[in-house]
Every structure is written in structure tokens, then in C-alpha cells.
Amino acid sequence: MNTITSPADYPDPKAPASETARQPAKYAFALILAGCAGMYLILHLGLTWLYGKVDETWARISVTVLMLIVAVICQRWLFKVRTGKAIRMLGYGSVHLRALLVAAIISAVMLIFFPIFTVVTGAPVSLINDWLWLLLGIVVVQGFAEETLFRGFVFGGLRKLGFSFRRAGFVSMAIFAVVHLVLFTQLSFIVGVLGTLLAVVIAFPMAYLFERSSNTIWAPVLLHATTSVIRLVDIPEDSYMIAVSVWFGIQLTAPFLVYLFLGSLLKASDE
After folding, report:
1. Of these four, 14, 26, 45, 202, which has the most CB atoms within 10 Å of its CB?
2. pLDDT digits (tens, 9 = 90+) for 41-83
3. Which pTM was predicted?
4. Who's near 255: CB < 8 A, 6+ residues apart?
5. Which residues are within 8 A (CB) of 208 and not within 5 positions of it... i.e. 6 or more apart?
6. CA 255, CA 232: separation in Å to the nearest integer?
């Protein structure tokens, strides 16, 4: 049974129509839209319902497991494949070590912010007491859940349907913007705007990281989780807003460092 392990496994959008997508293209596209919306609602409404009832990290694990099950079911239905292949198509193939190294390098660059911030402002920055347990929750949701949904299911699904990289990138970017509207029902307006902006802006660099890592989510998971680590540190109140503002700028810009590696560690397999 063939598996998707490289960008070459995705069809050329200029080639004649094939049986790559078993469902009619328009129907399959509608299923991707509906599946994305449904899984995003499961993720965020589920977390909202569970917070306060159970431990936050356990809530994140529980809802993510449910969302991943739904993702596999949708992938099987959409492309008429077995469970194992559906899981691999969602990005759970073999680890691409060079891509993981790129994600680790960019993550390290981002994390340098904290000691620099302390040196420049004199504000002490320390890890909170339960940071490791909270980190697990961040990796589960911001890492595995969102990368499975955004890169594996939506972007990967569009590529599987024959969309070019650029077209899949722009269409998935629009989808991310729409599904993030649910944030405005749960959070303040400014938080909703910033969350939506972040998802849209980093769509292309994260798509490159996904596709150049043989269509796997391991490297994107690491980088995406790193963008949320500010939740793990304790910053004095009088310096907190400055730190958060600068960190948001880092969140928006650091993923674009991916482009520096496209000709080397993230070189396309056919180049």
C-alpha cells in the first residue's frame, strides 16, 4: 500500500485529472471545509466546556484525542483509504530529521528572547512551578491538534486534490481566517484579532515546513508549540505587556526564517 512521504506524491495541478481524489473535486473541497470547521469547533468549544471541570492539560489531551479521531475518520471518508494511510496522510509519517533541525534552530532563536529581555529590562523571568505539565498541554493542542488540522488535513488535503502549493496556501489561509472567527465568541476582540492574524500570517512558512519535511507535522509541531511558550514563564507585572508585545512580534516573524533553509536543509526532493 503506497503512502504519501514526499511532495512528489501530490499530483501536478497542471496534469490531466486523475483518480487521486476519489470524491468529485467540488464535493471533496466542501468536505474539507466542513471537516475543518467541525474539528475546530470540537477543539475550542470542547476546551471551553472542560476548563474549570478538569485539569487544563487533561482537558487539552482529551479534546485533542477526540479531534484526532474525527480527523482520521474524515480523511478515510474523503480519500477512501485505510486507517494507517489516513494517519500518514495527516502528517504522521517518518520523522524528517533535517526539517526537525530547522524547527529546532528557529525555536532556539525565539527562546533567546527571554534572557535578552532580562538583560535589557532588568526584569527577572523564571519558569512557573508547573511549567512542564503545562508544556505538555501546549504541545498537544498548539502542536499536534492545530498542525494536524491546519497542515495535515486542510493544506495537505488541498494538495492531494491537485491544488498548486501557492493556491493551496492561499485557500488554506482564507479557511484559517474564517474558522478563527470562533475566537471572537470566546475571547476579547483584540485577542481574537491577534490569534487570527497569527494563523494567517504564518500559514505559508508553516506550509513550506510541512511539505519540505515529506508532508509530516513533526517539525511544524515543534515550531508551533514554541510560539506559545511565553505561557510557561513568570514575568513581573510592570514588564508583562512589553514582553507579550515583543513576543507577538517574534511569533509573527520568526517562522519566516524557514525561507532561509529552502535551498539547503529544506531543499525540495526534486531539486
Report:
1. 202
2. 999 889 999 998 999 999 999 999 999 999 999 999 999 999 9
3. 0.88
4. 106, 202, 205, 206, 209, 223, 227
5. 258, 259, 262, 266
6. 20
